[in-house]
Amino acid sequence: MEENLTFPVYKVEEILAFLRSDVLAGPEARNFTKSDIVPTPKPDSIQRLYMRILQLVFGFRPDCHYMMPVNENIQHPLIYEGILPIASIYLRMCQFLPMCHVYDFQMNDLLNPKAKRTIFILCGIMNFLHFRNLRREIYLDHLQGYKSAVEKSQSIAKGINEAELKITKLTTIPPQQQAEFKELSAAVTDLHHAMSQESQAVNSINEEIAQLKSEHAEKTLKLNNKKVDLATLKEDQARLKSLIVESPEELRNEKEKMKETVKKIKQTIEKTNVNLVELQNKIQGSVKCQEEFQSFYKLQLDLQGGMEKMNSLIAEIRNISDVVERQRKDLKNMSTDETQYKRAVGMKMDKKTKLQIRRQKKQEVKDQQVQIMFGECNQVQDKREDVLKQIKQVIDENQQVKAKLQFLTECCSNETAKAQALYDSLMGVLEQYHERLARHAEKSIERKM
């Protein structure tokens, strides 16, 4: 049997501790001891234990086991009063123990329980109660989760309504501010156009400044190169003066050449100075343009800040709308679940009403049967009283007959004693008579001889 078990076999101490803590309570837990299970289980304590287990699992009170079922037509219910609780416990245990994987419960397990068999049954019940407690905790967690989900759905619905109100408030412009909003939007568009034009002008000015800077850099490079060439020429002139014999014609020619080169250099310097002045004027204009551009840039930054705020508000509105759509979807799902639950609840309520109607009909039938049974019980009670009266009369007659019998037995014993005495005396006389006859016979025989 232990190889086919689907539950562990516990020790008697573990079973006793479990029963005292989880099944029994009060004086029953204190009075229930190990001697009630081993070595020879007590039928009364085992039956009371099974009653408490059935009460724990099914809510079937112990006093219900002593009630006669009203849906059964029993002629003499008083006969079954003694066996009724045992039969009720047996039927309920036969329904309950297959859940504990105990399929061979017998009447002998109640009337004459054995220790090993009782421990096996209690181990199965203990395993089932452990499993029941675990699943009950999970069920309570699921129930709590369902309640929290319902509360969450209600809060989400409230949040959706509040978000919709906020969206309507943010999207709808009051009539007092519509004119100001139109003016601001027109001003923003004008500023955008002006900013685009100014940015184009600034870009063209920046391009011109860049070109002028490049030309200025090229001309400064050329001027530096010319200065380097002039310095080299002066060095060559000083070196050549020391080497070449001076002649007036050559000196004149060279001086003229040098004058021409100096004129050319002066002209180039004047041109570069003019270009520098022009560049300085352009740079001053570009600085003014930069200042104006910075002012426009500040305005653009302010506008960008306002646009960013508007974009953030629009993004918030979009996020809120997305959240609202999600919450609407959740609400739809919740509403579908709610409709399904309502349908299920409606079906269950219909079933409940039908069951209540059936129950009322059965209750009416049972009440009628109970009234009939009460009438029969009253008749049985009257008959019982009549029978009890007859029994009392019979008992009195029996007592009288017993008294007469005792008197007659005493008389008979006296008469038998007297008769025995007469019989003894007659037997003694007869023996004497026989002895005399024998003597006379012997004498007559001797005389004849």
Topology diagram in text:
Elements: H1 12-23, H2 27-31, H3 43-58, H4 84-96, H5 108-111, H6 115-171, H7 175-243, H8 248-448
Helix pairs in contact: 1-6, 3-4, 6-8, 7-8
Describe the 3D structure:
- This protein has 449 residues and is mainly alpha-helical.
- Helices cover 84% and strands 0% of the residues.
- It has 8 helices and no strands.
- It has helices at residues 12-23, 27-31, 43-58, 84-96, 108-111, 115-171, 175-243, 248-448.
- The longest helix has 201 residues, at 248-448.
- The two termini are 103 Å apart.
Mean pLDDT: 78
The geometry reads as: rod-shaped
What percent of the residues sit in helical stretches (DSSP H or I)?
A: over 70%
The number of strands is 0
SS summary, helix count: 8
Please tell me how large the radius of gyration is: 65 Å
The end-to-end distance, rounded to whole angstroms, is: 103 Å
Structural class designation: mainly alpha
In this structure, how is the largest beta sheet organized?
A: none
Share of residues in strands: under 5%
Low-confidence stretches: none
Order of SSEs, N→C? HHHHHHHH
Keywords:
8 helices; 449 residues; mainly alpha
Summarize the structure.
By secondary structure, the chain is an all-alpha fold.
